[in-house]
């Protein structure tokens, strides 16, 4: 474990990670997008990290689901251990050359890996890459991601897409949360012996999936 990036030692023990988006009172009352804040917990509900999204009000209001952001993830001592960077890119199969790509750094300034959206006419598909941009895993979502009254699972698969080794799940949060706020609860299940850098990239993938498929603008409510 002495070779692990600082702050990721705890991920070495986990095969399940819970990501809980904190309820923003202003968003619930006014229906206005605010910067997202998350708690990252183990399967017992104990907080391991917390995360804060950084971007401008302009990005949140006009580019909501495809907005550029930097998410800084810190441990309980306040030390930043993971940085997730998303540039402004397309979110449509009509533009297959400029689809989503996410960079994950750990420690900040050092590449841990990437999440790359793959073109597909029917299914949400992503590739998890290591720091050398070598493909490691695939993520494949369902054809419909509305998830009314049920969880939505994105399967984590081997590169040949034949074997499922884990999943990213968007948990049903209840009527009030889903109608009046964009708060979300996600679970990540991966093999416990998966490289901790790839586990960090999976956290980044979870944030990307949240914004692409589950964070809809509230301005019309």
Automatic annotation (TrEMBL):
User: Which cofactors, if any, are listed as required?
Assistant: Ca(2+)
Top-rank taxon of the source lineage equals: Eukaryota
Query: What UniProt keywords apply to this chain's record, in alphabetical order?
Result: Calcium, Lipoprotein, Palmitate
Alphabetical list of InterPro entries matching this protein: Scramblase
**Which organism is this protein's natural source?**
Rhabdornis inornatus
The record's Pfam families line, in alphabetical order, gives: Scramblase
- PANTHER family referenced in this protein's UniProt entry, alphabetically: PHOSPHOLIPID SCRAMBLASE FAMILY MEMBER 5, PHOSPHOLIPID SCRAMBLASE-RELATED
Gene name of this polypeptide: Plscr5
> What function is annotated for this protein?
May mediate accelerated ATP-independent bidirectional transbilayer migration of phospholipids upon binding calcium ions that results in a loss of phospholipid asymmetry in the plasma membrane.
As for family, the record states: Belongs to the phospholipid scramblase family.
Q: Which GO terms describe its cellular component?
A: plasma membrane
Question: Which terms does the record give in the GO molecular function aspect?
Answer: phospholipid scramblase activity
Q: What is this protein called?
A: Phospholipid scramblase
The keyword Lipoprotein is assigned to this record: yes
